[in-house]
Design brief:
- This protein has 102 residues and is of the alpha+beta class.
- It contains three helices and three strands; from the N terminus they run H-E-E-H-H-E.
- It is globular.
- The two termini are 20 Å apart.
- The mean pLDDT is 92.
């Protein structure tokens, strides 16, 4: 794995902070949230950013899916506060049952 530049380290820290804030809100407001995690390709950032909100059961995931747009807007707002502008918020947050190791 190649070493990250200072800019990439700053990007990663900003995204981690925004995702952590989103995760804290999700724990408080949604049932069955297990964790939030993200992946990104630094060379194609911010377009390559994908945040996944993991749920414990399929039923809880389906119930939360009706609120997906609201959570996508929240992610976009958290990232914007960190100086990261994403063009299409719908591409950057998904609800899933899979964990980072799946």
């Amino acid at each position: 794995m190649k070493k990250l530049s200072k800019v990439q380290i700053k990007q990663q820290a900003a995204v981690m902070s925004a995702v952590t804030q989103l995760e804290e809100q999700a724990f408080a407001q949604l049932d069955g949230v297990e964790q939030c995690w993200f992946s990104m390709d630094y060379d194609a950032f911010p377009g390559s950013l994908l945040v996944r909100m993991q749920f414990k059961t399929e039923a809880e995931c389906e119930v939360a899916t009706s609120q997906l747009l609201k959570w996508q807007k929240r992610l976009s707002a958290h990232l914007f506060k960190k100086g990261i502008l994403i063009k299409d918020m719908r591409k950057h947050l998904v609800f899933t049952l899979e964990g980072p190791d799946d």
